[in-house]
Amino acid sequence: EVSARVLCAGGVTKNDVVQICFDYSLFGGGLGFHYGAELVGASVIPGSNLDPARQVVIARDYRTTALIATPGFAIRLAAVVREKGLGPADIHLKRGLFTGEPFSERTRKQIEDELNIKATDNYGLSEIAWPGVAGECEKKKGLHIFEDQFIPEIIDPRTNEVLPLGEEGELVLTTITKEAFPLIRYRTGDITALDASPCGCGRTLIRMKKVAGRTDEMVTINGVSFFPSQIEHIFSQIWGVEPRSSLVIDRRSDQDVVEILVKGSEEIFFDEMKKLQDLKSKVEREIYQ
Description:
single chain; alpha+beta; Rossmann fold; GMP Synthetase, Chain A, domain 3; about 30% strand; globular
C-alpha cells in the first residue's frame, strides 16, 4: 500500500506503463514498486537484470510512460537514447521515480531535460519499508512521510537529543502498523530535516528534506564537522564545475589538511586561465562560508 502511495504521489495512474529497472533478486525496492504499481492498476514491465540498451528498446517498443530506477541508471539510459539517434518523444516517457542513491537538483534537471520527464525522489530502507517510507509529490518540495505508518523524529546524532522542526539531524523512525518486524525509534543514520508547512499538492503529511548525508560519513577537521555531500551540493550550484569531487584528508605538520579535487566542465577551455582562476576563487569562497 505505501508503495502505491509513493507511485501516486509521483503522478502514476492506472493508465501508465511502469518499467522497473531494479534487480529484483538483490534490491528490495524492485518487488515493492512492482506490487505497488499493480495495486494502482498500472501495467508493469519487470526490467530486472537488463542492460541500458535493452531497457531503451523495451521502453520504445512497449511505450513505457513511467520509469523506476536509480538516478545514475537514468543518466545511462539517456546516453543510450542519444547513441541510438532517438529523442525523448520516441520512448514516450512522462515521469520517473528514483531511489537507491542520493542525487542533486542539478542531476535531477539533467535527467528531466535529457529524458523530457518529471523526476521525483523517494525514500525507504530495507529494515522498515522500501519503497514506501516517504516520496516526493509533483511539487518537489520535500518527501511526504506516511505518518499513519511511521512516526518520524530528528535527533542530534552526538547527543541523541530530539531536535525541533526544521533543524537538520539524524532521522529516527518508529513503525506503527508493522507486525512481523516492528521497530521503535530506529536510527536510520540518514541526515535530513522535517518540514510541517503546507504543501501545494494538498497533502497534509509532514515532509522530510532530501537526505543530505550519513552520520557515518561525517568528517571533522580542526573542530569543524561537515559531510562530503555538502561539498557536492556547493559544486552543483557553480557553473563550470562537475558536481562530483574527491576529498583527500592528510596530516601535515601536525595539522589536518583537506584537498578537494574537482573536474572542470568541458564548457571551459583550459587555456582560459582567467576563467579557471575566477572559478577557483569562487569555489573557495563558497566552501569557506
